[in-house]
Design a protein that fits this description.
about 35% helix, about 20% strand, 2 domains, alpha+beta, Creatine Amidinohydrolase, Chain A, domain 1, Creatine Amidinohydrolase, single chain, 6-stranded mixed β-sheet, elongated, 4-stranded mixed β-sheet
């Protein structure tokens, strides 16, 4: 059963008339159509009992054709004519008025929503995320293989970066070199801008690289990843810049142990809450519980952050094919932070760590 057949079954099981998508990860996952949200609205329709249809600018219509959407169900429009007629025709052909369609609460804008309401009076909406994520949660071997390729690219880039890191380089310089190295190793695009934070800046989990230079005694946190064939890597390692003090080294060891405990808890039937508890308890018992200020992990797929989440309250059982990060951290205000992040895939009888980069503390500079 392919993805569209699975989607159709989900639509019917939820009593919907269809799902409407805008440019973004769900559109890519289901249709292969890569576009972006802009002043030119695009809406892709998957009815419960008919072929897909799309409202799309003429300049991108070839993408819809390549995705196999029938020509008579491609409602194109030009900048000169505008998109009103295309939405009106689509609404009429799909009989949207008075129907119930799921839309993306995280991606659909007021623009697309109001156009649907205008040309389909009485249209009711529900959230599409539970429906589509039910499909995306379980990764097939090709998806996992793509993530492993991305991980390989990122890890090779890091191996090349480490000898180049020198005391006095700025966070921005390290980030720029790492980005270039990932492209040289085969990245299609960056999964996100690398987080490179040193010293006190490392106490912020999502710090943005600055002009701060690396100094002896700093911890250096690098969170990096790239995309290959549509799927990402997401890795974090923490390094010592020259000699660091005993407490920072102890903090590193505690986080490393928490990372191992979280991975050990990952298996079919376990929950995200249990993985989080396993990692968090190590840090709490070491006396640093107040300094672990985020969840233990997040899912990986066509998005870098997606379900399942390794956090309290996530009680759905994990299943083979789930892929997520395990990334505990400790963040000491004014001093620095440590985070160690791996990418993990649930298997039939446990879990497999996809990342291979060493977690022994490396001294740079």
């Amino acid at each position: 059963m392919n993805r569209i057949q699975k989607l159709t079954r989900q639509i019917q099981e939820h009593g919907l008339d269809g799902v409407a998508l805008v440019p973004g990860p769900n559109m890519v996952y289901l249709s292969g159509i890569h576009s972006h949200l802009s002043e030119r609205p695009i809406v892709l329709f998957y009815p419960a009992d008919d072929e897909p249809a799309i409202v799309i600018p003429n300049l991108e219509a070839m993408k819809a054709e390549a995705a196999g959407i029938p020509p008579e169900r491609i409602f194109g429009w030009s900048d000169e004519t505008g998109y009103a007629d295309a939405f009106q025709q689509a609404a009429a052909q799909l009989d949207l008025s008075g129907s119930l369609w799921a839309v993306e609460s995280l991606y659909m804008r007021v623009l697309e929503y109001e156009l649907l309401q205008e040309y389909a009076p009485g249209l009711c909406t529900a959230q599409a995320e539970p429906i589509v994520m039910a499909l995306r949660l379980t990764k097939d071997p090709a998806e996992i293989a793509a993530m492993e390729q991305a991980i390989g690219v990122s890890e090779r880039a890091m191996e090349r970066l480490i000898p180049q890191i020198k005391i006095g380089m700025t966070e921005k310089q390290v980030a720029a070199i790492l980005t270039q190295l990932q492209f040289e190793e085969g990245a299609d695009v960056m999964a996100f801008g690398p987080i490179v934070s040193t010293g006190p800046n490392g106490a912020s989990p999502h710090a943005v690289p600055t002009e701060r230079p690396l100094q002896t005694g700093d911890l250096l946190v690098i969170d990096w990843g790239c995309i290959v064939d549509g799927y990402p890597s997401d890795i974090t390692r923490t390094f010592a810049v020259g000699e660091i003090d005993a407490e920072l080294r102890r903090v590193y060891d505690v986080v490393n142990q928490a990372n191992a405990a979280g991975i050990a808890a990952a298996r079919p039937g376990a929950t995200g809450e249990e993985v989080d508890t396993a990692a968090r308890s190590v840090i709490t018992q070491a006396g640093y519980g107040d300094y672990f200020i985020h969840r233990t992990g997040h899912g990986l797929g066509v998005e870098v952050h997606e379900p399942p989440f390794m956090m309290q309250g996530c009680t759905n059982p994990l299943a083979p094919g789930n892929v997520f990060t395990v990334e505990p951290g400790i963040y000491l205000p004014e001093r620095g932070g440590v985070r160690i992040e791996d990418d993990v895939a649930v298997t039939e009888d446990g879990a497999r760590v996809l990342t291979t980069f060493t977690k022994e503390m490396i001294t740079v500079g």
